[in-house]
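Fill in residues.
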C-alpha cells in the first residue's frame, strides 16, 4: 500500500478546498493501492521559515529549531505519494503552502525525490488555479524531480 499524503494548501475560512478535499480523499480511500492521510495546513501552524544551516544541522538528518517543523518533516518523509489541493494566489500557491514546502526544503532531496506528486486546483469561481497546479511551477518541479511523468 502506498501512503498518499493529501496536502490542503489553503487555510482561509470558507476555502474552496472544503468542498473538494472530502470528495477527493473519499475517492482515494476507496482505491486499494492507497492508505490516505489528509494533511490540512490548518492543523500545522508552521512558523515562517527561519532556519539557518546551524539549526538544520546534517541535511541527511535535519534537526530544525522547532518541534512542529521536525514533525512536519517526519510526516512528509512518511509519504510515498503526494496530492496538493490548492487554490491559485497571485499566479502561485498561497503563502501558507509555500511556507510548508520551504519548511521541508532540506529533506526534499531524500524524502520526496522520485516520489510521484500531483496537484489539483480548488477555487471559487471555477477556472482559477492553473498556475498553482502546473507541473512546471517552480515549487512542483523542486518537490518532485521524478524520472517518470508525475
Ligand atoms: C489573495 C488572492 C489571490 C488570488 N490570485 C489569483 C490568481 O492569481 N489567479 C486566479 O486564477 N485566481 C486567483 N485568486 C482566486 C482564488 O484562486 C479563488 O478565489 C480561490 O477559491 C481562493 O482559494 P481559497 O478558497 O482556498 O481561499 C486569488 C484569490 C485570493 C484571495
Amino acid at each position: 500500500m502506498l501512503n498518499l499524503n493529501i496536502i490542503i494548501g489553503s487555510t482561509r475560512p470558507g476555502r474552496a478546498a472544503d468542498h473538494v478535499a472530502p470528495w477527493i480523499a473519499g475517492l482515494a480511500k476507496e482505491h486499494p493501492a492507497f492508505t490516505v492521510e489528509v494533511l490540512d495546513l490548518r492543523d500545522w501552524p508552521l512558523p515562517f521559515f527561519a532556519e539557518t544551516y546551524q539549526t538544520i544541522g546534517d541535511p541527511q538528518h535535519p534537526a530544525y529549531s522547532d518541534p512542529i517543523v521536525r514533525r512536519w518533516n517526519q510526516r512528509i518523509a512518511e509519504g510515498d505519494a503526494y496530492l496538493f489541493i490548492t487554490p491559485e494566489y497571485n499566479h502561485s500557491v498561497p503563502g501558507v503552502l509555500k511556507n510548508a514546502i520551504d519548511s521541508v526544503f532540506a529533506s526534499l532531496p531524500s524524502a520526496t525525490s522520485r516520489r510521484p506528486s500531483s496537484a489539483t486546483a480548488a477555487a471559487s469561481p471555477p477556472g482559477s488555479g492553473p498556475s498553482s497546479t502546473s507541473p512546471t511551477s517552480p515549487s512542483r518541479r523542486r518537490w518532485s524531480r521524478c524520472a517518470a511523468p508525475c
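DSSP finds seven helices and four strands in the chain.
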